[in-house]
What we know:
Blueprint: E1 3-4, H1 10-17, E2 22-23, H2 25-28, E3 36-41, H3 47-58, E4 65-71, H4 82-88, E5 89-91, H5 92-95, E6 100-105, H6 121-134, E7 135-141, H7 143-153, E8 158-172, E9 186-196, H8 199-203, E10 208-214, E11 218-224, E12 229-232, H9 242-252, H10 278-294
Parallel strand pairs: 1-2, 1-4, 3-4, 3-6, 4-5, 6-7, 7-12
Antiparallel strand pairs: 8-9, 8-10, 10-11, 11-12
Helix pairs in contact: 1-3
Site (Important for acyl-CoA specificity): 111
GO molecular function: homoserine O-acetyltransferase activity; homoserine O-succinyltransferase activity
EC number: 2.3.1.46
Amino acid sequence: MPIRIPNDLPAQEVLSEENIFVMGMDRAAHQDIRPLEVGILNLMPNKIETEVQLLRLLSNTPLQINVDLIRIDHEAPKNTPKAHMDAFYHRFDDVAGKKYDGLIVTGAPLAMLDYEDVKYWDKMQMVMDWARRHVQSTLFLCWAAHAALYHYFSINRVLRQEKLSGVFTHRVNLEHDELLRGFDPLFNAPHSRFGEVPLEDYAACTELEVLASSDEAGVYLAASRDKRLVFVTGHPEYDPDTLSQEYWRDLAAGLNPDVPQNYFPGDDPDLNPLVTWRSHGSLLFTNWLNYYVYQTTPYNLSDIA
Length: 305
């Protein structure tokens, strides 16, 4: 089944060329079914790239999904035209009265800032409190995952000496959890971050379950026991060349980055990267939509509390 997005959103053309079924607003209006309502709070500077990555993963499901792109700040974003923001994004204040089956909150390039020093931290806290009352299940990615752990459970991250960058092997810790249904016991996923929350801090919080972790990269996937909060510290949505682009960007900026681990053949950045994570990334989003959202959300969204 398709995802439903605005007719002229650039992601529609990209996904259609990949043979992914997307549906424009006009056609979807004639479908007599109850679609899922999913919001994407996109905090990344290059919003169009992130939209494509997330919509690609959301499309691999038999459910019809209405997607709202959401912003919380009023400043012009880096690397995204103002016209695009005006045409396709809702200000949070304009959708705050709405309820959603699911919400995705992306990462953000804010690794070195204390949360309270983030210019929109007050708004982020407002959104996270709002999500508990207005969203059946919220999925937080990378920086947003750590920010949400801090907000909801007072679990603070520590900063690594070196950036964690690369593709790492993870093990399934709770094989019977629906979010991991169909996963291999070991699977790969990309990471790109400075922040880290130690495993013992998750374990000390009785409201959380650690679902998947790595000896090298730490906790990758955790969730609240009521399934309404999901924390993904990596980037299952990444394109094959995303880590490569980050590496060459940082190199050009004089940051002397390490070569992403387990990514380029022979750790040679001049070679095309190995892609070993996309099937499990797709399965993670499909399971979240099916088991954490669709199977638990009320038919009448007004009943979410």
